[in-house]
Amino acid sequence: MSMKPRIALIAHDKKKDDMVTLAGEYREFLAGCTLTATGTTGARLINELGLAVECMHSGPFGGDLQIGAQLVMGNIDCVVFLRDPMTPQPHEPDINALVRACDVHDIACATNVSTAHLVLGQLMLINNKEIQA
Ligand SMILES: O=C(CO)COP(=O)(O)O
Fold first, then answer.
1. Those residues with Cβ within 8 angstroms of residue 76's Cβ, 6 or more apart along the chain or in another chain
2. Which residues does ligand 1 sit against, CB inside 6 Å?
3. What ipTM describes this predicted complex?
4. Which segments constitute the MGS-like domain (predicted)?
5. Residue 132 Cα, ligand 1 centroid: separation in angstroms?
6. Among 3, 4, 12, 119, which residue is least crowded by beta carbons within 10 Å?
C-alpha cells in the first residue's frame, strides 16, 4: 500500500474562508493525509477544523518557497493554492516560483475551488481504492 497523500494547502487572505470551507468538506479525507500549509492558512485549519498541519512561515515571509522546496525534494503530491487574482501580493515572485515548481515536477496544483474539488475528489477515490485493495 502506498503512503498517505501529502498535500500542501495555501490560501491568500481573501480566499482563506473558502479554504476553511473546502477543507471542512474533505475533513475526514484530509485527516488521513500528511498536510503542510503556509503559516496563517495552517493556523486556521488547525484552530477551526482540528486538522494536524505542519505550518511553514507565512507566505510573505517565505512560506511558499519552503513548500516549493519540499515539493522539489519530492515530498508533496498535490497543492491546493487558492490564490487571490484581484490583489497584488508583495511576494509575487515566490508565488510564481511555487506554481512553476509544480509544473516543472508535474505536481497537481489547484488554484481555485472548482479545480480543488476535482483534484481532492479524485485523490480521495484513488486513496479509497488503495485502502480497499
Ligand atoms: O501568502 C500566502 C501564499 O502566497 C499565504 O500565506 P499565509 O497562509 O501565511 O497567509
1. 6, 7, 8, 36, 67, 70, 107
2. 10, 12, 38-41, 58-60, 63-64, 95
3. 0.99
4. 1-133
5. 36
6. 3
Active site residues: 64
User: Using one digit for the tens of pLDDT, what is the confidence trace for 49-60?
Assistant: 999 999 999 999
- Three cell numbers, residue 92: 509575487
What beta strand segments (E) does the chain contain? 6-11, 34-37, 53-55, 78-82, 108-110
- Which domains does the chain show, CATH number per domain? 6-110+120-132 (3.40.50.1380)
Residue 130: predicted pLDDT: 86
The model's pLDDT over 73-104, given as tens digits with 9 standing for 90+, comes to 999 999 999 999 999 999 999 999 999 999 99
pTM beyond 0.90: the answer is yes
